[in-house]
Amino acid sequence: MDSFNSTLKRLLRTARISTPISGSSHINVGNTERVISLAGGTLLTWYGLRKISIPRLVLTLVGANLVYRGVTAYCPVNEYLGRNTADKEGVSILLSSNLVINKPRQELYAYWRKLENLPNFMKHLKEVKQTDEKQSHWVAPIPGNLGTVAWDAKVTKEKENELIAWQSLPDSDIDNAGEVRFKDTLPGKTTLVQTTISYRAPEGALGANVAKLLNPFFKKMVEQDLNRFKTLMETLENIPHDGQPS
């Protein structure tokens, strides 16, 4: 038991989960900063182009970068620093969990990697359909029988029996991203499963409708779903490597 506890503590300390990007949009600049960037960038670009010189060329490049930042709402520096001012303005949910499950990581990975299995324990999802090896179609019900919201996602990173990461595709109705890591605690017997999932409503009228989905009740439901994965996996007697329970 002491060996198990020390192994678990080491994994929790060293196996850091990287926060997923904000779904498909890569937006990490808030609206206020976008306006300032556009205004300042336009002014610097205009001033820099009035007369060609080295200093003014530098100003032009800085201005062009600010214009790009304002138009796209994306800043590489923000991404490098892990800074996101857009999340403070939009409706978003970010959840993380660490679960020790009494199953080998190969079985847990196989079950999760077959994405159609996700609604079996994720009650906030109605359906996930794999469309090809990397892409899938997700459907979630909106509380209050207000219909459903659907989006397409793509597996962005995977390492067999160790890591799965995904994000929604551009122009999706909702920004969704997630990452799951599988680490041995007792090899062949128990596994530490680290999960991070994020949802974010896009801007505009559609975003206002999606925001109805991202409420405290929905957040609690996702938390329960992550815990339900442990219960389901420990209940299944055998999970073949194709992810289909026997």
Describe the protein.
The protein is of the alpha+beta class and 246 residues long. The chain has two domains: 170 residues, 2-Layer Sandwich (Alpha-D-Glucose-1,6-Bisphosphate, Chain A, domain 4), CATH 3.30.530; 42 residues. The chain is built from seven helices and seven strands, in the order H-H-H-H-E-H-E-E-E-E-E-E-H-H. The protein has a seven-stranded antiparallel beta sheet. Strand 6 and strand 7 form a beta hairpin. The protein is elongated, with a radius of gyration of 22 Å. It starts with a helix and ends in an 11-residue tail after the last helix. About 6% of the residues have low confidence.
Produce the secondary structure layout.
Layout: H1 2-14, H2 31-50, H3 54-72, H4 76-81, E1 92-101, H5 105-113, E2 127-130, E3 135-141, E4 148-159, E5 163-168, E6 175-186, E7 190-200, H6 205-211, H7 216-235
Helix pairs in contact: 2-3
Q: What's the gyration radius in Å? A: 22 Å
The overall strand count is 7
Fourth-level CATH superfamily of the largest domain: START domain
What is the H/E string? HHHHEHEEEEEEHH
Q: What percent of residues adopt helix (DSSP H or I)?
A: 25-40%
Low-confidence stretches: 11-25
Largest sheet geometry:
7 strands, antiparallel
When the domains are counted, the total is 2
CATH fold description of the largest domain: Alpha-D-Glucose-1,6-Bisphosphate, Chain A, domain 4
Strand order of the largest sheet: 1-7-6-5-4-3-2
Mean pLDDT: 77
Helical region count?
Answer: 7
Give the name of the CATH architecture of the largest domain: 2-Layer Sandwich
Q: Which structural class is indicated by helix and strand composition?
A: alpha+beta
Which strand-content bin applies to the residues?
25-35%
What is the CATH class designation of the largest domain?
A: Alpha Beta
Shape: elongated
